[in-house]
Structures are given as structure tokens and as C-alpha cells.
Amino acid sequence: MKIVLLEHPRSIAPDRCNDIANTPLSSCLISGYVAGMLKSRGHDIEIIEGYLDRLSYAEIEDRIRTLKPDILGIHIVYHWQQDIALFNFLEKMKQLGQTSFITAYGFYATISPQAIMNNCAAIDSVIVGEAEGPFAELAEAINAKNSIFSVPGIAVRDVSCNSQFKKQTPIRDIDMVPFPVRTEALYRLPEVNILGSRGCYGRCTFCYVNAYHGKGIPWRGRSPENIEAEIKAIIAESGKRDFYFTDPNFFGPGQSGQERALRIAVLLKPMQIRFGIEGRVNDIHDETIAALVDAGLRHILIGLESGRDESLKRMNKMTTVAQNENALRILRKHGIEPNVGFIMFEPDATLQDIRINFEFLKRNDLLKNLAVTANVLYHHQIVLEGTEAFESLKREERLQLQSPGYEGSAGFRSPEVAVLSDIMRQVTNIIFSRMANIWSGRIIEPPGIQRRCSDINCIVVELFEYHLSALEAGKPFDAKQIALMVQAAEEEIDSSMHYSSTIL
Length: 504
Ligand code: SF4
Description:
Number of domains: 3
CATH class of the largest domain: Alpha Beta
Distance between the termini: 60 Å
Radius of gyration: 24 Å
Bound molecules: iron/sulfur cluster
């Protein structure tokens, strides 16, 4: 069958430019894995990179008109508001007869199949969970003109338009999954994305990684030899030697997880590659990091999330502040300055939590780089459907839903925390909008930018501390005062950028 997979164009609302959690990084290979599996079953596959290739819907329409696929698969990525443009496009494709069957897949599709079907009549089915297995079975059922109602993992509408599906059993041995197909657009990225494992053994309340892979499904790692084989194939195909493991958690649990990581290091070392990973702080062990660095590890994202044990417990992070500090120490000892995940503003945070977080960040030298500072002094907890936080806030009747209901928010318990969060959100959005082109690599860093960033970093840290201290002292702030303070901060940031550029 001719099957087209579409990565649709994505837009980001200006006030969400600092939010990073609309879909986990591992999503970037979902279409590739679907394509790999379908190819292995003899289907003719095309991936349209609407997002990375910056295609318009008119350009995508031209491609689909030429390809006339039997099935059009859409990797639907949540992007903060109902995607009317995408849904209108799919309706049009159906009406024009450019395809007879449309199926959606991905994290958003898995967690909100009913909402997606309600919003787009052109979508015939939604894949719930890992996509490659159910997609292959769906294609076989359609090809054989069999009913798709009983295909596990495929949600379809019943007579009342309610989505119904039989649960799929995700593949346990992921060495059995064909390697993903990588498009030219994916190869254009600075690093080749690779997935060495699926799921996470953690259970953080704000995370929905496991809701996608299936509740109760354990972390599954590929064998080091299977990963080695894929990397060798990529080097042979593209010559690239920079990789990023998009696994939500590179390390498996316990001692066996460490031993597997050590074995990966042994196999990667002779290949002379450079790579990045993401992991939990409790898995950062001196011997393993030493071996991985020796094998080419150059960067890592670790989820610190908080500088206070009580907050870590509320998030069910199953880690401690001592483990956070130990992980920072080990990584720095081996020459790695980590990227960090940090949730400064969780719904139940008190001013005391915020102060302890701030002191933790200062004590651990995490407020010296503007790109890091702007994140750690701002990030609030994003509450997406499929997470434990979404469910518990709903039970407590604190959840406020945003359209289309996939994302919620909860008012802060502390009005003072709400004020500080509001100020920091607005100020950091100003920074992100000024720095967007540089931080995204769209333009080359202008001369003197490091000095400017350093000046602005000082402004933001001082601003945070000033307002935190004022709130601790009981100073009230109303909306007008907040607006004036944000305006003053914007002027200071802009004048600092100008001043520094003239003296350098
Ligand atoms: S450790 Fe990371 S991937 Fe695992 S549950 Fe927590 S946030 Fe999710």
C-alpha cells in the first residue's frame, strides 16, 4: 500500500515560547519507527516533514495530490491550541478524495483520542500508544478489506461517535522493532536522534511518558549490541558522528541499568562519536559517567526539579536534594555541565519553597548562564492530560481546563507565589523573544552577545531576588504595579543589550 506519514506544521503561541513540554523529545522518531515497520512489511512509505521543512499546507497538499496515499498517517503534536488549520486541511484532503483513510498517532493522539475525533471528522482512527505495531496491523486489515474494529491499539468511532479501542500490548523486546527511517530533514539536525530505550521506571506526577507507553509497562532497553548496529548503519549512511539519545531515561533501573550503560560505553568508544543523553539524578554514578564520557558523552539533561525534599516528594520524583547535588558534582568532575530540568513554580509551592529553591540554584552555580537562568527562575508545572497531577488536581476540583481540554492549570495555593510567577513569566518571555533567533541557531551569534547575556542574567537574578524578598516582607503587588515592573525590566533588558553592544 502507499502510505504517507505527515509531520504537520506547528505553531507556538508567543506567550508559550518558554514552554518545552508539549511532547517528549522521543516523539521525533515516532514517524520514523512507523515507517521502518511498514517498510519491513512491504509497504511504500513517504514521510512529509511539514514541520522541519517549514512547508505550508498548500505545499503539503501538492505532495499528497501527487502521492495519492491509501492511508495518510498524521503525527499529531499538541501545540497549545486546537489546530484548526490542520483539521481543516485533513477535511479538505478527504473531500477532494486525495486519500481514503486518515489515522492519527503520537502522544497527544494517545491521550486524547476522543477529543481529536470530536474535532476532526476526517480522522478515521487514532492509534493509542506506541504506533508502529498497530499501524502495521491497521494497514494489513485495510489492505485485506477486513474490519479494523478489533485491531488492538486502534481507536475508532462507534455508532454514538464515542472512540472505542482494544488495548494493545506494547512490544517487550524492542530489539525486534526495525530501525527507524530517518529523513533528510532529520539528518540536517545538528545531532542524529536515536532511541535506546522506551518508557521510564520513574513515576513523576507531572510526566506523561508512561501514559503513552502504557501504564504498568516497564522501562525497556534495547540491547547495547542492537544500538551499536544502528549507529554503525547511520555512520555508514550519513557519515555523522554526533548523536542524541532521546530516551526519557537513558539508564535502566538499578545495578543492571548501570551495567548496561557500561556495556554501551564499551561498544560506543571505538566508533569515535559524540553523544548526549537524559537521565535521573539517582542514576548518575561516578564509574558509569567516567566510562560514558570516555566513550563520547558530551552533554546530559538531568531532572533536578527542585531544591527542596518536600517539593520532590510532592512531585513523586523519588529523588532527594542530596542526590541532585551529588549528580551535579559527579558530572562536573567529568567535565560535563548539565542541562537541568527545574520546576520553580509548582501549584502547591510556598514562598519558603521558592526561597529554598533559589538558594539551591545559587549554591550550585546554576544561575550564571542566561539560557539556564531564564528557565530555572521561571518554569511552572505544566499540567497535561494523562499525568497524575492532572488527575489529582481534577479530584481536588482545582483543575482549570484550557481549550481543547488537554492542558490544565491550577491556581497557586499561595497568592504571593502567583505574583512572583506572573512577573517571572512575563520577564523571561521578553528574554526568550529577544533571544529566539540566536538560541534556535537561526542567526549567527552577533559580536559581544556573551557579554550582553551576562548583563541580562544579572538583571534577571536581581529582579527575582528583589521581588522574592519584597513578597517575603509582606509587600503587596497589584496588577498595575506588576505591569509597571515588567515594563521597567523590559527597558532595562533592552538598554543593557544596546549598552553592551556599543562598548564591545
Ligand atoms: S524521571 Fe523523567 S521520564 Fe521518568 S517519570 Fe520522571 S519526568 Fe518522566
